[in-house]
Amino acid sequence: MLDIKFIAENTQLVKEGFAKKNFDIDVDGLLTLHKRVNQLKTSSQAMAEEKNRLSNSIKSASPEERPNIIAKSRELGEQLKAEQEKLAAEQAKFDDIMWRLPNLPSPQSPVGVDDTENVVVRKVGDIPHFDFEPKDHVELMEINGWTECERIAKVCGSRSYAITNELARLELAMHLYVMDKLAANGFRVITVPSLSKEKPLYGQGYLPFAKDEIYYMPQDDIYLSGTAELILNSLRADELLTENDLPILYAGFSPCFRREAGAAGKDTRGLTRVHQFMKTEQFVICKNDVNESEKWHQKLLQISEEILQDFELPYQVLEVCTGDMGAPKYRQYDLEAWVPSQNCYRETHSCSNITDWQARRTNLRYRDNAEGKVRFVHTLNNTGIATPRALVPFLENHQQADGSIRIPQKLQPYMMGKTFIKGQK
Question: Which of 2, 160, 340, 380 has the fewest beta carbons under 10 Å from its own?
Answer without folding.
Answer: 160
